[in-house]
Write a structure and sequence with these properties.
Elements: H1 6-28, E1 46-52, E2 55-59, E3 62-66, E4 69-85, E5 88-111, E6 120-129, E7 132-141, E8 147-150, E9 163-175, E10 178-187, E11 196-205, E12 215-233, E13 244-252, E14 255-262, E15 272-286, E16 301-302, E17 308-313, E18 316-321, E19 324-331, H2 409-428, E20 433-435
Parallel strand pairs: 2-20
Antiparallel strand pairs: 1-19, 2-18, 3-17, 4-14, 4-15, 4-16, 5-11, 5-12, 5-13, 6-10, 7-8, 7-9
Length: 436
């Protein structure tokens, strides 16, 4: 059995038994209620201290999650080149030499001569009034075999006896058509077209073939001739004066070494930027410390498995009400009663009133326990011994008074003991009260 529950198991029966005695006590002593109503000293009130535990609320910790962050940053590489072998090729050299030119002239026909063409045609016969015609059907007599031409349907009715259409028809002119002769033009007449022309001139280099049909005018002039050109390898020049170097023709490309330098890096010595760029390998960035929000910039995401919980405020107990004590009244103060009046004696035998034997002994101090009180007895009174409890003033009563309900003094002491036992039970169960 737990030591903690042992006092409760012992004191609980005592408290119940005491309450039962107090409850039934007044009925048993009702007959002697009036025998102890005088001559009782005052009994001070008895108090007990009840300790109330503190009210405590468990406040949980305040936390928030944090993570490490990572991202991939796009980079740019720049091209740098160094010349390993120069390009090979040729240069075009050109010059112009003065040339003697002669003027030639010739006629250019703008519109050729076209002779006149007379009209050509023929005569046609055209119908002025159409002819009137009639269609006749050929009928044959079945008996005689004779034939005749009649209008369509002639063999109907009486004429139909023996006559039958052979299937042949003929168109006969009732009134001839009226015609006229008309001239029809097959080709219209064309008027004569005169010739139009102009003369053109050209300067021809002396000794060159002039244009066909041209003739020299006799005029001459000195002009810059057509340019002369020659292709020579790099480093060579043509003979003579007046040459000018022109276009470069590459025959073999230059050999260069190309390197791609990451963004922010330095190119090797002797390499020049070409201006070309390309996307480089992305750079992985990751934070070493955790934070609740992503760092500045785009593309940040949480590192998987990096979540950690940061405690902003530790868990603690909050005292909502301090522990306190309370003085509980165990038994009220009982005032002293008036002194009992002296009753006269009859003077007979000088013996004790109340029928007691002469040899009865008074209780002595040796027969009493600590805290017991001896109450003088008179006729009609009942003597008793009571144990007092600690009072609020620290003193103890000499005797227990007889109350108006006739309760024996020892019952009051037993009631006080039951209250003390109940207070002990309360203290035994005392634990801090925690509010969740």
């Amino acid at each position: 059995m737990s030591q903690r529950h042992l006092p409760r198991l012992v004191l609980a029966p005592i408290a119940l038994a005491t309450a039962a005695v107090i409850g039934f006590g007044p009925g048993a002593s009702a007959a002697s209620a009036d025998e102890a109503t005088c001559g009782q000293p005052a009994v001070p009130a008895v108090y007990d201290t009840v300790e109330h535990p503190a009210v405590i609320t468990a406040v949980p910790a305040v936390t928030h999650p944090e993570w490490r962050w990572q991202r991939s940053v796009a980079t740019t590489e720049s091209a740098f080149a160094a010349l390993v072998q120069p390009a090979r090729g040729t240069w075009t050299w050109s010059r112009t030499v003065d040339v003697l030119e002669r003027e030639f002239v010739w006629t250019v026909i703008d519109r050729a001569h076209v002779p006149a063409v007379p009209e050509a045609g023929h005569v046609e016969t055209r119908v002025v009034t159409p002819a009137v015609v009639r269609t006749l059907w050929e009928y044959v007599q079945q008996k005689t075999g004779n034939t005749r031409w009649e209008a369509e349907g002639w063999n109907a009715g009486d004429n139909g006896k023996g006559w039958e259409w052979t299937g042949a028809t003929d168109v006969v002119v009732v009134t001839p058509a009226v015609t006229a002769q008309v001239w029809v033009v097959d080709r219209s007449a064309v008027a004569e077209v005169t010739e139009l022309s102009h003369q053109e001139t050209a300067w021809v280099v002396d000794g060159a073939t002039p244009p066909a049909g041209s003739s020299a005018t006799g005029a001459t002039r000195l002009t810059a001739g057509s340019p002369e050109s020659v292709e020579l390898p790099d480093g060579e020049t043509p003979a003579g004066a007046g040459w000018t170097r022109g276009a470069w023709t590459e025959t073999a490309a230059a050999v260069t070494d190309l390197v791609w330098v990451p963004q922010g890096a330095t190119a090797p010595d002797g390499y020049d930027a070409t201006g070309a760029t390309r996307a480089g390998a992305p750079v992985h960035e990751e934070t070493g410390a955790t934070s609740a929000t992503a760092p500045d910039g785009d593309g940040w995401e949480k590192v998987p498995g990096s979540e950690t919980t940061v405690v902003d405020a530790e868990a603690h107990d909050r005292v909502d009400a301090e522990a306190w004590t309370e003085q509980v009244l165990v038994s009220p103060e009982v005032p002293a009663t008036d002194d009992c009046p002296e009753e006269p004696t009859d003077g007979g035998d000088g013996g004790e009133v109340g029928g007691e034997d002469d040899g009865a002994e008074e209780p002595t101090g040796d027969d009493l326990l600590d805290g017991d009180v001896v109450v003088d007895q008179t006729e009609g009174e009942v003597g008793g011994i009571a144990t007092t409890a600690t009072t609020a003033t620290g003193g103890s009563a000499d005797v227990l008074p007889a109350t108006g309900n006739g309760t024996q003094p020892w019952l009051l002491g037993l009631g006080a003991a039951s209250v003390v036992a109940g207070a002990a039970l309360v203290r035994g169960r005392r634990e801090p009260v925690r509010a969740d």
